[in-house]
Write the structure tokens for this entry.
Amino acid sequence: MTIKAVIWDLDGTLADSAALHYQAWQAIMDRYGIFYTYQMFIDEFGRNNAEILTKHFDAADPATIQRVSLEKEADFRALLTPGVLQPLPGVMAWLAHFRHQGIVQVVGSSGPMANIAAMVRALDIGDYFLALVTGTHLPKGKPDPAIFLRCAAVAGVDPVHCLVIEDSIHGIEAAQRAGMRSVAVGALAGSAALRALCANPAAPPCLALASLDQITTPSSLFE
């Protein structure tokens, strides 16, 4: 089935920002005296801040969750110094290939718009995208499919013609629940969790790639 729109996750897919996010999460948790480990960060990666903070802040009211979330993201943006981010291998070639093929490209990220815009600007890739879409105002984050369905609506493309590129298990599950094909990249590609998720023959196809530079003509995927 023809790919008409590509929905890119941002953190860990277009650029490796995980270390910066972990620094920001660790700083905010330390600030409030909450025990937090790297494994917790990995397990929750891809979910929205409200879900993460509600889990760790006992009986916190929505206003507190919102305030702490804004603090965390301000900490993250403060770490975005010049040159700290670079596109991951294969990203620039895929972006250019899809643009050459006339395929619409959208960023769909759980992060706040200020972060998305700052990262896209730091990477100098804004011209490739029709839109930047945030999931922060949606009731649920990934693996709920709402953010990807919103991206499809913004692109004006039926979900069955959308391809999602993701590095988190929550994101791949969200793509499947949206009825979209997907590419799982990075460490996720070789994980048992991904194999289990994609074992369902009724689910939309999912391709696992350790790196995007393994394929040079991505528009032909799944044909």
Observations:
- The longest strand covers residues 104-109.
